[in-house]
Amino acid sequence: MRILLFNDLCCGLKWAEPSGSITKMATFTERMAPVLVLWLAVCFSGTWAVDRGNFKTCDQSAFCKRQRALKPGESPYRALLETMELTNTRLTLQLINDNNKVRLLLELYRLQGNITRVKINELKPLKPRYEVPDVLVREPPTEPLSLLSQDENGVVLSLGAESQRVIVSVRPFRLDIMEGRDVLMSLNSRGLLAFEHLRMRKDTFSYKVTSTVASVWDNIKRVFSSSQADPEAEKKEEADPANQAETAKEEDEKAEDGMWEETFKSHSDSKPSGPSSISLDFSLPGVEHVYGIPEHADTLRLKTTDNGDPYRLYNLDVFQYELYNPMALYGAVPVMLAHNAQRTTGIFWLNAAETWVDISSNTAGKTVFGKMLDYVQGSSETPQTDVRWISESGIIDVFIMLGPTPKDVFSQYASLTGTQSFPPLSAVGYHQCRWNYNDQEDVQAVDAGFDEHDIPYDFIWLDIEHTDGKRYFTWDPHKFATPKEMLQGLSDKKRQMVAIVDPHIKVDSNYKIHNEIRNRGFYIKNKDGGDYEGWCWPGSAGYPDFTRTDMREWWASMFAYDQYEGSMENLYTWNDMNEPSVFNGPEVTMHKDAMHGVWEHRDVHNLYGFYVQMATAEGQIQRSGGVERPFVLTRAFFAGSQRYGAVWTGDNAAEWDHLKISIPMCLSLGLVGISFCGADVGGFFKSPSTELLVRWYQTGAYQPFFRAHAHLDTPRREPWLFGPENTALIREAVRQRYTLLPYWYQQFYQAHRTGEPIMRPLWVEYPQDPATFALDDEFLIGRDLLVHPVTEEGARGVTAYLPGKDEVWFDVHTFQKHNGAQNLYIPVTISSIPVFQRGGSIIPRKNRVRRSSSCMTHDPYTLYVALNPQRTAEGELYIDDGHTFNYDKKEFIHRRLSFANNILSSVDLVPDAQFSTRSWIERIVILGASKPSKVTLKTADGQESQLEFDFDASMSVLTLRKPGMNAGLDWNVVLQ
Fold this sequence. Notes:
single chain; alpha+beta; eleven-stranded mixed sheet; ten-stranded antiparallel sheet; 18 helices; about 25% strand; globular
């Protein structure tokens, strides 16, 4: 939710309404009204676009510029084999920088599940460097390492599985991970390992050795005493502190601007610890396609960055972001996947500081003809992608996930950071949001409008205007005077509400939340030790330190029903602005030298939103005594955020390109564990045409998080406001979502169990098909539904790639069969949503759509059985209570549905699970079938009955009517 336009040429408070309206700004705070009016008069620009000048480029980020200036092939690091220690679970080895004699400590672990962990830290830092806590679900279990060989050039260690081994080369230091004769990945092969060691600033000590500075020299000796490459040859030099002092002096004299202090526009970063950045390069032989490192509004396949900025990972509140560039956005997940037809691997760079990722490729820029010419001429050049990670602080802590399949990598990453939380079923339905529904009467009217126009929905949302003067955990006493009455009205219809709770707290001595946080000392501190204050929606605001366990516990307690007045069990939460957003801060966020206890904000920045969502989700769980599942939407996120709820792609615009980009943005998030993703339907900024709005509903209905949202200054756009024809089109799109809820819910359960993405690129299921590697205008839901949304204005057709050489696909609307491994042109009208079911699959639906998902709990199922050329099919049916954690107690139904040898059967996958359902099987539709002479139903109690059926010979569709068996029991249907 952003309407801010920043311009650091202006003074004081920096925000404005793009539309020119300042009516809402008066609600920020009365005492700032004169400043606002003055600022608007001086700085108003009226432009709806990101001001890129508010955000750094690599050249404007001192550490990025410094690191990027390093040349490949000039690594000063070598390994000291005499320091090597190998235990059953860990290799440790010292590295030395021959330029400055500073030593690093390398740790190497083989982890369960085909993962290798590499950590590099200073051997003896002046003070501890930050290591990211809480993201890993546990300390990863290790497996034994063994030494295969060693000589003066290096060592070879066995990684166990499939002849995998790691080679540690001495000079320069390098790691190569091998399988057989193939190099899977190399570390520091380009020599770009760089570790800026913590040091004392030169003006804090004298370079002349005297008795008055003896203690300073003692400190220097302690830091550098172990930094010699050859102990015998350099023993004398090591004994002379003046030599080390001279080395440090030379380094400091070479210091560039920004090492000890940095200014960006009007903001200064004091950098009390000095330069501390880290870098490491990875080479991926045979790889041309890499993915991940969200969040960026860019293509699914990551681009090379040789001729521009690296991809940036730094959580920022970016006003109406631009598309197709590497600028940082709201979230950061430092995970990259590399894929070719033989293997998928992953890199997880566990660092929460500002991070830049450079990508280069030896095939970048080559045309298809050029690649063919290489092939014909027998070019020996193997395709290779090189990736370099650069972070401002912390340590190198990297997990190399060795696959070999895409699903292996998902499992490996899930073992480290956890899986997607399993949401309540209602959260998988449709969400209606706006900034802002005006009051309780407005909420009631919108709710009634859905019933009047027969459009189902599950959640209605309230933005910041529902609060009492932007004081979160409160309600406007005039517009929302009786919130429980409002919530009860929704509950009576089996519907829910979400209210926003942002992590900026109004500085107001009459505000209970502020007083509690201040009195407990829970606010983040500025560099001078006082409470950090910035400007956000309430005006002057404090920022709770969510990195503190006790702060998170207190925050969670505020969601208790007796603390959050007016809340009920059907009220859930939206965490926005949690990058954190600071309107008058550098890059619209917090100063890096703000303090979280002993750690600077620069160390923890990308974790802030992760911790806010964690504390909020825990609060929802606690308020129910641990019974009910939470639902929390967050804008900022990090690795592991999937454990706590959903994300969305932020403040997009009502433009066709923004509709298109929502697909690769959500696909990228799914690849790194965050499946519960969606984009604001219709676009947050601007006003969509009716065609764009309809197409966005049709696209959003097939993305995991399905929410419409709109800016305060846009015209109202409830689904029935665009004429009966468009209302009908939107209704149909929403209804398609609801009929598929059983399949969606099953996919969420699978994601929760396995870590596999729900919305996934085609190459995940067809990893050996190069035609799928760069596709990002279509996607799969699970394995069995392929969706190609219509995202072009005025489109009369789309071309969809149907994968699978020996597979068939069925149009879910017409049941027409198409062969796989082809580009299929599909004529479309405004009502078309091209969706295909894979032959060989069984998908359950509920075709009786009601006003909300909870109203459909006991409704019957229709099974859609799509036969493959072998005339077989399989699928699953998952049922639980839809809202509690009782599935952890095996209170669910999980059945395997299969068709083979003309028998369709339902078998219990978890016989010891206990749950019952009143739902039954109402209809079975078999696609690609032959006409039987008769159909017999056999139930678990031995009963047999003949079923009525219809057969459409023109489409080969067999429909079995009213079989009537309970969805939770064993049964067989025999075709004869």
